Amino acid sequence: MERFVVTGGTRLVGEVAVPGAKNSVLKLMAASLLAAGRTTLTAVPDILDVTVMGDVLTGLGASVERDVEGGWIGIDVPDEPGVAADGDLVRRIRASVAVLGPLVARCGEARVALPGGDAIGSRALDIHVNGLTKLGAVVDVEAGALVARSGGRLQGASIWLDFPSVGATENLLMAGVLAKGTTVIDNAAQEPEIADLCAMLTAMGARVEGAGSSTLVIEGVESLTPVAHETVPDRIVAGTYAVGALMTGGDVMIRGGRAGHLGIVLEKLVQAGAEVDVRADGFRVVGRDRPRSIDVVTLPYPGFPTDLLPQVIALESISSGTSLITENVFDSRFVFCRELHKLGADLRTDGHHVIVRPAQRLTGARVMASDVRAGAGLVLAGLVADGVTEVTDVHHIDRGYARFVESMTALGADIRRVPDRAVA
Ligand code: UD1
Fold this sequence. Notes:
Shape: elongated
Low-confidence stretches: none
Strand order of the largest sheet: 22-23-1-24
Bound molecules: uridine-diphosphate-N-acetylglucosamine
Largest sheet: 4 strands, mixed
Number of domains: 2
Distance between the termini: 14 Å
Oligomer: single chain
CATH topology of the largest domain: UDP-n-acetylglucosamine1-carboxyvinyl-transferase, Chain
Mean pLDDT: 94
């Protein structure tokens, strides 16, 4: 166990390069299962979740070669991959459920441990299960695993999602590309990472229309060919540095960041007082005065991303007025508020709302990263808190932020990684 020790009071100034998106690369890795042979992915971020997903694929019979420095990964998928994903690994990252669609489509069967022992019909995976059932799979729970069997090729169908779930859209898309006939996914999630997956699938020979829109029309094909594909830049990492620039009164060039994928986020940061300069190779964010308070409502893309919520709550805790933050995607994201409160933030949660009042100042304390984004939000708060903030459980941050300490240090932050038992 390690922790980050952050000494507040520095401005973020300089340049940071945005790595490939965690939420894309994990699904691109799963998509490699759709074709025998070697898939090569580039712009692969140096994060823990990629390692775990690589282990999931290895457990399914693939050979995974990774060059961490070079940022690429090669995945050799056998003619007949295994169909059972290792339970311990699957429980470590929810994204591993993305192997379900490709495996059942290609092998006629898939067995994936249930994250946290969910039952079919529970909120967490019901949209995936309902969609696969529409495509002709029979889905059961057996010995703590979700088992999908198709007894042959899946059959294309029209599927209307109850909610534009990112994971369900991806699973059903990957199942549909090898199904017989036409699959239509309506109320599909529109996240840029799904458009990235569509681009890779299309290059593999899939026939997908409507990438990036709420209706995906897929003409199933009999087989696909492996390809080389570059991962889309991580908009959440880019957004995190952007919020950090504003909070610290800094000046950061976010190289490789796609402003077009952060429309509402940049609009909100401008309302809060940031200067944003969009360039061909990224965008620059400058913060000058104390940020003005803004209200934020999270929604599926193109709405404000839930994965930037903790960072924005940290921003609001030092802004000049009161703000109302509403979370509409997940129901337990506010655990983070308890930790931020320890730094002196003035927060009141009520259902899926948080009211944030301006704090006189934040003061360093020991706080816990409860998830990847909460951890990033706490580091941002630590940058503007008086004294030393210790963020524990940083393995969560390592799941999604490549070389976070190094990048923050290069921007001028005073941040160190130390073993949890060592004296800071
Ligand atoms: C993905 C992202 C995550 C992001 C989220 C929303 C990855 C690895 N993770 O997660 O970082 O925060 O999108 O943008 O890409 N739901 C159901 N039934 C289902 C599926 C989902 O009720 O079958 C609910 C979930 O409980 C949640 C909401 O829908 O409340 C959103 O989930 P979803 O869009 O599926 O998120 P993930 O794909 O898990």
